[in-house]
Amino acid sequence: MGKRFVVLLLAAEVILLLAMLLADFGIIPSKIDPFSTKSIMMHLTVVIIIIGSLIAIKRADKK
User: CA torsion 22→32→11→7, rounded to 10°?
Assistant: First the structure.
């Protein structure tokens, strides 16, 4: 993957995580319960993708 694509993916995932956290705290209306299995799995997936993007950026810098 290109470094530009990874940075773009990282930015999109951080925005998505921020939106989910705002919905969890009730600032943005949401129909999903914050403590439901679906909500927890979505948060974990976003965090895993963010960590993967950070690792990919670090590997791209070493080359």
Answer: 150
> Rg of the chain over CA atoms, in angstroms?
14
Residues whose CB falls within 8 Å of the CB of residue 6, separated by 6 or more in sequence, listed in order: 53, 56, 57, 60
Q: Global pTM?
A: 0.82
Among candidates 17, 21, 23, 20, which has minimal Cα distance to 49? 17
CA distances to 2, 13, 16, 26, 48 from 31, in Å: 36, 21, 16, 10, 24
Q: Look at residue 51 and tell me whether its pLDDT is greater than 80.
A: yes
